[in-house]
Specification:
Helix content is 35%, strand content 11%. It is of the alpha+beta class. It folds into two domains: 1-29, no CATH class; 40-74. The longest helix is centred in the last third of the chain and has 26 residues, at 42-67.
């Protein structure tokens, strides 16, 4: 932040207090920082890849059965 004004009206410009500007500006509203997503472990990545692969295999098999008209068998 280049310029910051605290509750008491103290003005800071690039980290240095500016006593001449005290009380001339409204207090700065500070926004909370966004939380970063946690990194996934190697095991978690592998498990997700395995689940995706299994879902693709299942979908492929279903399409294959549909094209071969095997889905309607009882």
């Amino acid at each position: 932040m280049k310029e910051y004004v605290d509750k008491d009206g103290n003005v800071f410009h690039k980290g240095k207090e500016q006593p001449k500007l005290k009380g001339t500006l409204p207090p700065t509203k500070v926004k909370p920082l966004k939380k970063k997503a946690k990194r996934r472990s190697r095991d978690q990545i592998l498990v997700e890849k395995y689940k995706k692969k299994q879902a693709l295999k299942k979908a492929h098999k279903k399409q294959k059965e549909f094209l071969n008209h095997e889905i309607y068998k009882g």
